[in-house]
Design a protein that fits this description.
heterodimer, A: alpha+beta, 15-stranded antiparallel beta sheet, 4-stranded mixed beta sheet, 11 helices, B: mainly alpha, 7 helices, 81% helix, elongated
Chain lengths: 565, 135
C-alpha cells in the first residue's frame, strides 16, 4: 500500500512538472523572442518602435534597450525611469547606474552623474569607460585632482603642450626645473602635485594654477595660468602691503623674485611700545633647484609681559617682566614630492630678562625657573605629509611633525627638547566650487627639560601666537601675558565657513568655530578651554582681515577681536 | 568539387555563430551608451573652448581703440590688464565676457557714447586688476 501511495505521489509531481515546465519554457521563449526583436530594432535604430512595443518590466535587458531608446529620443525622464527599473531588476548590473549617469550628464547635472558613476565603479571597478566617464565629469566640475586620478588608471590624459600664460619672468631654468612633467606624455597625478608643490614653494605664484585644456582630438594641453609676484607688487600693491597692518602699529615690506631667481625678501617693523619687533627674512631656491629651498631669518623683540589670569575684569598682576630676544635662523626644505616634504632648521638666539616682578607662585611652578637668560642653539627637524587625500570627496588631511633639541649656555647650562605634531583637515562638501568648507586643525606639543620663558607656548588670540583659542585674548593693555601659557599643549580648531565672493572683488568667509585647548598653565590650574563663536574674514584689495566674536564656554567671557591673520 | 564551397560555408557559419555566442551581450551594449566616449571628449573640449572664448572676448574688448584710449588716459597699462585676464576663474571670465559683449553691442547700436564705453572699460579693467590683487 505504501509503495502504491508513494508511486502515486511521484506521478503527481511528474504531472505537475510536465504541465509547469512547458509554461515556463514558453514564457522564457517569449521573453527571448522579445529581447531578440528589441535588439534587432535597436541595431536598426528604430527607437520609436522599441518604445511602442517593448515591455521594460519583463527583463533587465529589455529595460536597458528601452531606456536607451528613450534617451536617444531625448526623453530623459522616461529613460531614467526605465534604467531605474532595470536597476531594481538587476541590482548588480553596472550598466544601469552608468546609463543613469549618462542621462544626468546629458542634462548637465554633473553632481548626479558623479553619484551614479561612483555606484557603477563599485560594481565594476575595472571598467575603463566608467573611469573615463567619471574623470570627465570631475574635469567638468573643476576637480582636476580627481579627474587625473581616474584618467591615470586608463593611461590618460595625454598632454600635447605645456605652456605658461603669460610667460613668467622667473628664470626659465628654474621654471622648467619646477615642472615635474613633460609634453607629449601622460600627465600623472603625482607629477602634477609635485609641480604645484615646487612652484608654491617659490612663493611668487600665489594665485597661479594649472589648467588642463581639452582639445577636440581627445588630447590635452596643460596651461599654467600665471600670476606672478614681482618686486613690491606694483605701486598700489606695494602700498597695500606696507600699510595693510598699520592699524596694528606694524609696517611690512616684501620684495619678490629678485633678479628673476625667486629670491624673496620679507620684513616687518612693529613700533608698539609694549611689544616692539623687527624681523626680516630672505628665501631662495638652493642650488637653483626649486625643490630645495633655503630661508634665513632674523627676529628682534623687546616685549613687556604682564602675567594675569584673565584678559578682562578683575585679574591681579601675577608677575611681570621685560623680554629682549634676538634670533637668527637658517632653514632648509626639501619638497620631495607633491605629498611630502621635510625640513631642517638651526636657530641661534639670545635672550635677557629685565624689570622682573616675580609675583606669586602660580600653579605650583615659579616663573623665575623659566627666566633663563643667555644664548641658545636649537636644531629642528620636521616633516610634512599628505596623510589622507580623497580628491573625489574633496577631503584632505595633512600631517606635520617636528622635533627640536636646544642647548642654552647660561650658568649651569640647560637643555630641552620639544615634539610638535599638527594635523590639518579640509573638506569641501559640494561637488564643485568652494562655497562651503569645513576645516579642522589639531596641534599638540610636549617639552622635556628646561625651556626658557620665550620657548613656552601661549594659547589665545593676538600676542603673536598661532595657537588659536579665540575667546582668550593674549594681550591686556597691549602687554602680552593674559592668556594661558605652558610647556605642553593641545589645541583643536574647528571652522565651518561659507564663502561669498562679489565678482571676486570682495572675498568674505563667514562661519562658526569651536576651539578647544589645554596647557599646563603657568598662570592658573590647568583646565580644558572651550571657546565657541563666529568669525568673518574679509579679503579686499589685497588686505586680509579677520574679525571674530568668541565666548569662553566655561567662564562666559566674551571676546571680540579684529586681527590680520 | 562541389562539396568544397558548401563545406567552407558551413565552417564559416559555425565560426561566425561561435563568435556571436562568445561575444558577451554587455560588449554589444558598450557601444550603446547614452553618452559615447566621443560625447565625453566633445563636452570636455567644449568646456575648455568656452573659457578660451570668454577670455578672447574680454581681451578683444580691451583691445578696441576706444578701450585702449580709455586705458591710456587713465594711465593703466593695457598689457598688465590683458595679462591679468589669464588669472581669472571661469565664472569671473564668463561674467566679464557677458558684460563686455553687451557693452560692445550697445556701443555699436548707438545706445552708448564714447564716454560711457570708456567708463565701462575702466570698470572692467579695474575689476580685473582688483580680482588678481585680491588673489
Amino acid at each position: 500500500m505504501q509503495n502504491l501511495r508513494h508511486s502515486n505521489e511521484v506521478c503527481r509531481v511528474l504531472a505537475i512538472c510536465l504541465l509547469v515546465v512547458p509554461v515556463i519554457a514558453l514564457a522564457q521563449g517569449a521573453d527571448d523572442a522579445e529581447l531578440a526583436r528589441v535588439k534587432t530594432l535597436f541595431q536598426q535604430q528604430r527607437w520609436q518602435e522599441i518604445i511602442a512595443t517593448a515591455r521594460p518590466g519583463n527583463s533587465p535587458e529589455v529595460a536597458f534597450y528601452y531606456g536607451t531608446a528613450q534617451a536617444r529620443l531625448g526623453h530623459w525622464a522616461e529613460a531614467a525611469q526605465a534604467f531605474n527599473l532595470g536597476r531594481r531588476l538587476a541590482p548588480q548590473d553596472p550598466r544601469f547606474p552608468v546609463e543613469l549617469a549618462g542621462v544626468a550628464f546629458k542634462q548637465k547635472d554633473y553632481p548626479e552623474a558623479e553619484n551614479w558613476l561612483r555606484k557603477a565603479t563599485r560594481l565594476d571597478p575595472g571598467d575603463s569607460y566608467i573611469k573615463d566617464f567619471l574623470a570627465t565629469v570631475f574635469f567638468l566640475e573643476g576637480n582636476v585632482e580627481a579627474a587625473l586620478k581616474y584618467w591615470n588608471a586608463i593611461d590618460k590624459p595625454h598632454i600635447n603642450r605645456v605652456t605658461a600664460e603669460p610667460a613668467p619672468r622667473l628664470d626659465p631654468v628654474l621654471f622648467d626645473r619646477a615642472l615635474a612633467l613633460s609634453p607629449a606624455s601622460t600627465l600623472g597625478l603625482s607629477d602634477f602635485l609635485a609641480s604645484g608643490a615646487r612652484l608654491d614653494q617659490l612663493h611668487i605664484f600665489p594665485a597661479s594654477h594649472f589648467e588642463i585644456v581639452a582639445r577636440e582630438d581627445g588630447t590635452f594641453d596643460l596651461v599654467f595660468r600665471n600670476f606672478e609676484r614681482n618686486g613690491c607688487g606694483g605701486k598700489w600693491g606695494c602700498l597695500l602691503t606696507v600699510l595693510g597692518q598699520s592699524p596694528g602699529q606694524t609696517l611690512n615690506f616684501d620684495y619678490y623674485n629678485l633678479g628673476r631667481r625667486a629670491v624673496n625678501f620679507s620684513s616687518l617693523w612693529r613700533w608698539d611700545a609694549e611689544k616692539r619687533r623687527i624681523g626680516a627674512s630672505v628665501e631662495f631656491p638652493f642650488a637653483r633647484q626649486p625643490k630645495w629651498h633655503l630661508r634665513t631669518a632674523a627676529d628682534l623683540r623687546n616685549e613687556n609681559w604682564a602675567m594675569r589670569s584673565a584678559f578682562s575684569g578683575p585679574a591681579p598682576l601675577l608677575a611681570a617682566l621685560n623680554l629682549k630676544r634676538e634670533a637668527g635662523s637658517l632653514e632648509f626644505t626639501d619638497v620631495v614630492s607633491g605629498r611630502w616634504r621635510w625640513s631642517a632648521a638651526t636657530e641661534f638666539s639670545r635672550r635677557s630678562f629685565h624689570k622682573i616682578l616675580p609675583g606669586t607662585t602660580v600653579a605650583g611652578t615659579s616663573l623665575p625657573e623659566f627666566l633663563i637668560p643667555g644664548s641658545q642653539l636649537k636644531q629642528s627637524l620636521g616633516a610634512q605629509a599628505a596623510l589622507v587625500s580623497i580628491p573625489e570627496h574633496r577631503l584632505s588631511i595633512v600631517g606635520l611633525g617636528s622635533v627640536s633639541v636646544a642647548r642654552l649656555w647660561s650658568g649651569k647650562g640647560h637643555q630641552f627638547s620639544s615634539f610638535q605634531g599638527t594635523s590639518r583637515s579640509s573638506w569641501l562638501p559640494q561637488h564643485s566650487g568652494d562655497k562651503f568648507e569645513i576645516q579642522h586643525a589639531f596641534r599638540a606639543a610636549k617639552t622635556f627639560g628646561s625651556p626658557p620663558f620665550d620657548e613656552l607656548h601661549t594659547l589665545g588670540v593676538l600676542g603673536d601666537t598661532d595657537l588659536l583659542i579665540r575667546a582668550h585674548i593674549a594681550t591686556r593693555d597691549g602687554k602680552k601675558g593674559s592668556a594661558p601659557i605652558g610647556r605642553n599643549y593641545f589645541v583643536s580648531n574647528l571652522d565651518a565657513t561659507r564663502n561669498f565672493s562679489l565678482l571676486g572683488v570682495f572675498k568674505i568667509k563667514l562661519g562658526p568655530f569651536l576651539d578647544t585647548g589645554w596647557t599646563n598653565n603657568l598662570l592658573a590650574q590647568p583646565e580644558w578651554l572651550w571657546d565657541a563663536g563666529a568669525q568673518v574674514r574679509v579679503q579686499v584689495l589685497g588686505f586680509d582681515l579677520a574679525a571674530s566674536y568668541g565666548r569662553d564656554l566655561r567662564s562666559g567671557t566674551n571676546a571680540f577681536v579684529v586681527r590680520v591673520p | 568539387m562541389s562539396h568544397v564551397p558548401s563545406q567552407w560555408i558551413r565552417n564559416l557559419s559555425v565560426i561566425l555563430l561561435a563568435i556571436l555566442l562568445v561575444i558577451p551581450a554587455s560588449l554589444f551594449a558598450q557601444n550603446a551608451h547614452v553618452v559615447s566616449p566621443s560625447d565625453l571628449q566633445q563636452q570636455a573640449a567644449s568646456a575648455s573652448q568656452s573659457r578660451a572664448r570668454d577670455a578672447q572676448k574680454v581681451r578683444d574688448f580691451l583691445g578696441t581703440p576706444a578701450a585702449q584710449k580709455a586705458l591710456r588716459d587713465a594711465r593703466i597699462d593695457p598689457v598688465q590688464v590683458k595679462n591679468a585676464v589669464a588669472g581669472l576663474t571661469d565664472a569671473e571670465l564668463a561674467k566679464l565676457a557677458a558684460r563686455a559683449d553687451k557693452a560692445q553691442h550697445d556701443f555699436a547700436a548707438g545706445y552708448l557714447s564714447t564716454l560711457d564705453i570708456a567708463l565701462i572699460v575702466l570698470g572692467v579693467a579695474l575689476i580685473i586688476l582688483i580680482i588678481v590683487v585680491v588673489k
